Amino acid sequence: MLLPVNATLGVVMAALLASAVAIAARANFGDARGARRYGKEIAIAGARAALQLAVVSLVIGVVVHVLPLTLGFVVLMLSVAAWTAGHRVTRHPSWRWAAAPIACGVLPVLAALLLTGLLPPKGIALIPVAGILTGGALTATVLAGRRALEELTARRGEVEAALALGFLDRDARLEIARPAASDALIPGLDQTRTVGLVTLPGAYVGMLLSGSSPVEAGAVQLFVLIALLAVQSIAVWATLELVARGHIVGMSERAPSSDV
Asked: Rounded distance, CA 200 to CA 208, Å?
C-alpha cells in the first residue's frame, strides 16, 4: 500500500487543503471583480473529492463485475466531464457543445483499444482507462475553449478586420483563436516529455505496487500517455472548430451567422 488509510492521513489531507485555501485567499486568486474566488472553490473541490471518492469506491466494487453497469458508469463519467468542461468554458447556454470534443476524443480511442484487444472488456480495466482519457479530454477542452474565447474577445478588432478583407466568419475566428487554443496541448506534451525524469505517473506506480515488473509498468504508462495525446489532440481540434463556427460562444459574444 502506498499510503496507510488512517487518522494521520486524514489530518494531513485536511491541513494541506486548508493551506491551499489560505494561500489562494491571501493571494486574492480570481478575477478583478471578485466574481470568482479560488479559495472557496478549492475548499469545495476538496470536500467534493472526498465525498465523491468515498461513494465511487463503493460503487466501483459493484459495477466492475457487470459489463452493462460498467458501460453506464463510463457514460456517467463522460456526462459529468461534459457538464464540468462546458461550465468552465462559458456561462452561455452553448456550454452543452462541450460534450462533443470530449466524446470525439474519448470514444474512438476506447473503441480502437477494445477492438484490437489491447483493452479487455472488463470493468477493472475499462473504468480506469476511460477515466484517465476522459480527464485528459476534460482538461484539454477547458483550456482550449477558454483560451480561444478570451483571445477572440481581446482581439475582436482583428477578427473584424479579417472579415473586412473577405475572410469567412469561421476562417477569421480560427485565424485568431488557433494559436491560443493550441496551448491546451502543452500540459500533456510536457507530461509525456518528462515522464520518468520528473514524474512517475499513477499508472506506472500502480502497476509496480500491484507486482508488475518495471518494464511492464513502463509499457502501460507509455500506452496511457500516447493515448492521452491522441485524445487531447482531438478534443482541442474539435473545441477550436466549435468556437470558430460559433457553436460555443462567450456571454458577451454573438454567434457568427454566415457560414456555420
From this structure: 11
Phi, then psi, of 71 in degrees rounded to 5: -65, -40
- First-residue to last-residue Cα distance in the chain: 53
Contact at 8 Å (CB) between 242 and 183? no
Q: Could you give the CA distance from residue 117 to residue 227 in angstroms, rounded to a whole number? A: 15
pLDDT in tens, 103-115: 999 999 999 989 9
Q: Where are the alpha helices (DSSP H) in the chain?
A: 7-26, 38-63, 67-89, 99-115, 123-154, 156-164, 169-182, 186-194, 202-209, 214-244
**What span, in angstroms and rounded, lies between the C-alpha atoms of 32 and 38?**
12
Neighbours of 202 (CB within 10 A): 13
Closest C-alpha among 115, 133, 118, 104 to residue 227: 133
Radius of gyration for the chain, computed over Cα atoms and rounded to the nearest angstrom: 21
- In whole angstroms, give the CA distance from residue 250 to residue 173: 13
Q: What is the pTM of this model?
A: 0.81
CA 58 to mean position of chain CA atoms: 24
Cβ-based burial of 125 (10 A; exposed 0-12, middle 13-18, buried ≥19): middle
- For the four alpha carbons of 195, 60, 44 and 240, in that order, the dihedral sign comes to positive
- Whether the CA torsion 99, 102, 104, 110 is positive or negative: it is negative
Q: Compute CA distances 155 → 53, 92, 162, 177, whole Å.
A: 42, 20, 11, 9
Helical segments of 27-122, H only: 38-63, 67-89, 99-115
Average pLDDT along the chain: 86
